[in-house]
Design brief:
By secondary structure, this protein is mainly alpha-helical. It is built from 28 helices and 16 strands. The protein is elongated and about 110 Å long.
Length: 627
């Protein structure tokens, strides 16, 4: 069939094949299967593989079998069983209101004798204790011969119950323990009409043997009719009153009802927060990132939490301490950052490649000029690998010999650090035979290009501070010209490989950690470069696992939005206190919260250290440019 060569058709094909799915990745996998690089192995498992979740949920809306859509979606709820038991009550918990609503709606509605007869046919066996509210319709059924009262024998001798006349003989054989098939029918009828319950609870309601119900549940589970798990909060405390430490009894639920509970749970979670305005969202961000007085962090642990939240964001080197960190700490002391860096907890450096490194040829041989506005990031040392991949994003082409773009001094220093490893400043001067000023300039160039870092942050201060570099006046006695700590390469030829999927997952978590709520428009100024399509894959997976919530949290912005559960609660609190603050907050334009023209109305403010924004109650009061 010929595909029309039309712009709309081409755009639709591109959206479907590249945005909705990864066609190139699929082709690559199929080719590797064809060549034998990837081997397909059939494995029988008790729960679905994570790779099948997309199909089970019919996310691509593909009908891969002739089962009804509801049944295919019902199979998807078994994915909860792939979560560790200790997480089911946290990230995968079903909402109690959803469970109660489904249980209430599934119980038979009886308004006359005919509907009571239908209920008896469904439930098969209905003890007298369960039929009190429908007793007025029983005489009519008995007169017409459509219902009969039976009496149990054995352990539950004397207990009476109602059955439809059509089921009398079969139910009598079940009550005498002679037929399993009809017992399965009774259990299935009750499971279709109630919510999650244990076999102990069902046995108490029907006055039958618990062991018989256990066997019936196993048979129904093998048929795919019911699923077992822990669905209700603290269910074990209701069925095992004597043992808080005992293993909880498994709960059982009909798969159709469990699917409805799952959908209702997702719906309830999405409706818990009404969308807030952009102004309220800005107030939330100021508090989330500890900029609002009263929410600022304290001490070394607080500074480490701030750096953890800002990891991967690049700002001017000269802006980090006086503007970004100081605005988030109740009392900022440079010694705190020095201890974190020298202790190996925090690393600093330029993560994104310098634009000049992507240039090739001899058209412009000007070297990289280091300045105090060179973009620098502070981050936990253990996150360096995925942060480099996340910031670079694979969008910048780096020549095979990027150091060729550097000055001769910087190239020599790079070679020494490659061969010798981490070195003190004086060792670099001794090995290279350059003047101290030349080594300083070369190191500064390596830092600005994203090649070098140091053990301590004071090493960077010594390069940025002209008084210390010249060792003038009192600076000579108060602080040494060169800080303690060694210089080293920030990245060494990408020695550790990290898959794109792993990097996307880490970036998705980091963006949530930074903003609490994430949507496409919010990421306009982000340093972490990932396609929104790749992030959506991660966020949808996280929502299905219960780690994040999807919905509409901020009004005025299109597309899907995702939020951490604790961010949802904070948004609700912000909305209740709207207009409560009269304090003005001064932000540097280099701050990640410089969202003028992104979230807040008005033009964007260039992210340079001399520009500032003044906000009051989430509203941009004024922008100070060039001062």
């Amino acid at each position: 069939r010929h595909i029309p060569d039309h712009p709309l058709v081409q755009e639709t094909l591109r959206d479907c094949l590249t945005d909705a799915m990864d066609l190139e990745g699929l082709i690559a996998v199929l080719r590797r299967i064809e060549t034998g690089t990837i081997r397909c192995v059939a494995v029988d498992t008790p729960t679905p593989s994570v790779f099948s979740h997309e199909i089970l949920n019919a996310n691509p809306y593909a009908f891969l079998d002739d089962a009804p859509l509801e049944e295919r979606r019902a199979r998807a709820v078994e994915m909860r069983r792939t979560l560790p038991p200790d997480l089911l009550g946290q990230v995968g918990a079903l909402d109690p209101e959803a469970i109660a609503e489904v249980a209430r709606e599934s119980w038979p509605v009886v308004r006359d004798a005919d509907e009571l007869h239908d209920a008896l046919l469904t439930l098969s066996w209905l003890p007298e204790s369960e039929i009190t509210q429908w007793a007025a319709y029983l005489p009519l059924l008995m007169e017409s011969g459509r219902a009969v009262l039976l009496t149990l024998k054995g352990e539950a001798s004397g207990v009476k119950g109602w059955v439809a006349t059509e089921n009398r003989e079969r139910v009598e054989r079940v009550l005498e323990g002679e037929e399993d098939a009809t017992l399965d029918t009774i259990v299935l009828g009750w499971m279709e009409s109630t919510g999650p319950m244990t076999t102990v609870e069902l046995a108490e309601r029907l006055h039958l043997s618990v062991s018989a119900f256990d066997a019936a549940m196993v048979r129904l589970e093998s048929q795919g009719q019911v699923l077992q798990g822990q669905f209700r909060p603290h269910a074990a405390l209701r069925t095992q009153p004597s043992a808080l430490s005992a293993t909880p009894s498994p709960e059982w639920c009909h798969r159709r009802l469990l699917a409805r509970i799952h959908r209702l749970t997702i719906g309830i979670l999405r409706k818990e927060v009404e969308p807030v305005s952009a102004t309220d969202f800005m107030r939330f961000l100021l508090q989330w990132q500890h900029v609002v007085p009263g929410s600022r962090q304290h001490g070394e642990a607080g500074l480490q939490a701030v750096i953890r939240q800002l990891a991967g964001f690049e700002a001017a080197a000269s802006a980090w301490e006086p503007q970004l960190l100081r605005s988030r700490m109740a009392k900022y002391e440079p010694e705190l950052l020095d201890r974190l860096c020298l202790g190996g907890a925090v690393c600093w450096g330029r993560l994104s490649p310098h634009p000049r490194l992507s240039q090739s040829g001899d058209m412009d041989r000007r070297r990289i000029v280091p300045t105090s506005i060179a973009p620098i990031s502070l981050f936990p040392r253990e996150d360096s690998d995925w942060l480099m991949k996340g910031v670079r994003g694979g969008t910048t082409t780096i020549p095979a010999e990027p150091i060729s773009q550097l000055s001769p001094v910087a190239q020599d220093l790079h070679g020494v650090l490659t061969q010798q490893g981490a070195c003190f400043f004086n060792d670099l001067v001794r090995i290279t035979h350059y003047l101290q000023t030349e080594v300083e300039q070369g190191l500064w160039e390596l830092v600005a290009a994203g090649f070098a870092t140091a053990d301590g942050f004071d090493n960077l201060r010594s390069l940025m501070d002209p008084h210390r570099r010249r060792a003038e006046g009192r600076e000579r006695a108060r602080r040494p010209r060169h800080a303690a700590g060694r210089w080293s390469l920030l990245r060494q030829a990408d020695s550790r490989q990290l898959s794109a999927a792993s990097a996307s997952e880490q970036v998705a978590h980091q963006l949530l950690r930074r903003y609490g709520v994430v949507f496409r428009d919010l990421l306009a100024r982000e340093s972490l470069v990932q396609s929104w399509r790749d992030l959506l894959v991660q966020y949808r997976r996280m929502e299905m696992a219960g780690e994040v919530r999807g919905g509409r949290f901020v009004s005025g912005f299109t597309g899907e939005q995702f939020a951490l559960p604790e961010a949802v609660e904070a948004l609700r609190a912000i909305r209740k206190t709207s207009g409560a603050s009269s304090h003005e907050i001064k932000l540097s334009a280099t701050d990640p919260l410089n969202l003028a023209g992104v979230i807040l109305p008005g033009p964007r403010v260039p992210a340079v250290p001399t520009n500032f924004l003044v906000l009051k109650d989430g509203v941009l009061v004024r922008a100070v440019v060039g001062r």
